[in-house]
Amino acid sequence: MPRYTSSVSPKGQITIPVEMREKFGIDPRDRVTFEVGDDFIIVRPLRSPVDELYRSVPEPNEPHDWKTVRANAWEEHADHVASEGIYPESTEKS
C-alpha cells in the first residue's frame, strides 16, 4: 500500500496528495470526514446521499421518449390502484 507524506501548515492545514484526490474523487471545496482512533486518523470523502445514489440505477437499454415514459407510468399507476381495489382498507365504506 503506498504511503504519502504531507506537512501541517501553521493554520493546521494539510495538502492531500494529488494521487489520493484523483483516486477518491476529491475536488477543491469538497468536504471530508475525520475518524479518530487512539493512535490514528482516517480521512474520508464526505458524500451526500445524492452522490451515493448517482448511477445506482442502470440506464435503460434503449432510449425512450417522454410520451412512452408517461404512458408506462400511467399504466404502472393504474395497475397499482387496481390491485388495491376501489376502496383501500383505511377508507373502506361500511
Write the layout of secondary structure elements.
Blueprint lengths: L17 H7 L7 E5 L4 E5 L3 H5 L12 H19 L10
Antiparallel strand pairs: 1-2
Sketch the topology as an H/E string, one letter per element.
HEEHH
Cα distance spanning the termini:
70 Å
- Indicate the structural class: alpha+beta
Over the alpha carbons, how many angstroms does the gyration radius reach?
A: 25 Å
Low-confidence runs of at least 5 consecutive residues: none
Shape: elongated
Strand content: 5-15%
Q: What is the strand arrangement across the widest sheet?
A: 1-2
* Tally of helical runs: 3
Major beta sheet, specifics?
Answer: 2 strands, antiparallel
- Total number of beta strands: 2
Name the helicity range.
25-40%
Averaging pLDDT over every residue, what do you get? 85
